[in-house]
Amino acid sequence: MPIHRIGLIGDFDPEVVAHRAIPLAVELAASDCAFSISADWMPTEYLRTASEKVLQGFAGFWCVPGGPYRDMDGALRTIRFAREKRCPFLGTCGGFQHAAIE
Question: What's the chain look like in SS3?
């Protein structure tokens, strides 16, 4: 079974409850749907300069809660990539706000 990679756009902070819960939620959803999913944190500073080839390796993106992001442009760049490539995208809380800005 292929592994579907989901990029978690945001700056992981163990103090943010949602950041600790999101990987568990993805894991539970994957097991319910009989998929193999890898949820990979993508720090916004990294996303500012990440190659398009790196971004193409993901089946979808989740712009996660928790902000402000360290690099707003990195988050917006990745949201734009998802929109332009018609890649599945979810923005929650601050992630939704960034999607609206983009």
Answer: CCEEEEEEECCCCCCCHHHHHHHHHHHHHHHHHCCEEEEEEECHHHHCCCCHHHHHCCCEEEECCCCCCCCHHHHHHHHHHHHHCCCCEEECCHHHHHHHHC
